[in-house]
Amino acid sequence: MKEVCETMTKVTEKNILNILGKEVLPGTSTTINFNIAKLYTSTKVEIPVIIERSKVPGPIILITAGIHGDEINGVEVVRQIIAKKINKPAKGSIICIPVLNVFGFLSMNRFFPDGRDLNRVFPGTKNGSLASRFAYQFINEILPVADFCLDFHTGGASRFNAPHIRVDPKNERLITLAKIFNAPFTLLSKNLDGSYRATCAKKGKDILLFEGGKSQNSSKDIAIKGVQGTMRILHHLEMLNDSFQLPLSNSKSLIIKKSFWVRAKYSGLLHIKIPIGKHVEKDEILATITDPYGKMRHVVKASNEGYVINVNESPIVYKGDAIFRVTKELVNG
Ligand SMILES: [Zn+2]
Description:
CATH topology of the largest domain: Aminopeptidase
Number of strands: 18
Helix content: 10-25%
Low-confidence stretches: 1-8
Structural class: alpha+beta
CATH class of the largest domain: Alpha Beta
Distance between the termini: 25 Å
Strand order of the largest sheet: 8-9-11-18-16
Mean pLDDT: 94
CATH superfamily of the largest domain: Zn peptidases
Order of helices and strands: HEEEEEHEHHEEHEHEHEEEEEEEE
Strand content: 25-35%
Largest sheet: 5 strands, mixed, barrel
Bound molecules: zinc ion
């Protein structure tokens, strides 16, 4: 973490933060509207960038959600961080952007209006599609000021994720930070091409990606894990305000090296029998798949022991659909 505390980008000698063409003074609260494009109706689309600065110099943390417009639970995590004033740092600065893909958020859609997944077009291009242009602006006008990033997501397409942090298996520093965040699980997974995470890695920015819950859904239990993890990171960086107590946890994040998907062997109605996050034994019953006519009932069993970190909550499945993600190899525990 030494690096995080020592890197102070885009802050002048007088501790003035330059972002989006504005100067933000130490000890101030500012919201800058990041203009991205207009709707068909000429209505401006602006993304509020909420900045809180301590008078005491320190790291700049960038907290984002809603890269996928339908991942509401991530937005809720950042909303709580702001509403509870956790984003007022004891030192340094905290920049919160609760909704990055405003277009998708308006219509509860993962994608940008151009049909692109924003999280596959980073670092973007100046003259590309709408999503690509947005990614370019974000990477060039906001990301450079950040020393450390937190990005909040949920599972997509009815798939409910147990709360976990995703980090590159080769990045020991990020694994250490994930342990400090202490989500119930930490998934070691490679960076995907075109993702925000991959661009951060290329630019030498530390990032923790949080996954929890599912799209178009809100879960209090998941949101609190995201908020508490953020508080632990801020405490580690000596940025958490004295008025907050550090959230304690009885357990350490289980670090997942390998996991596998349990797929449906039949098409039909899906009935889940276990809660998310459960440790299951080999051959334990996970679900049943039935036909609508009361003739077929297939039992889905665990082929290995492990923790169930993703559950497909769709009421119907096709043969071959992924139903559960189960851990196969843990680094600890
Ligand atoms: Zn996402």
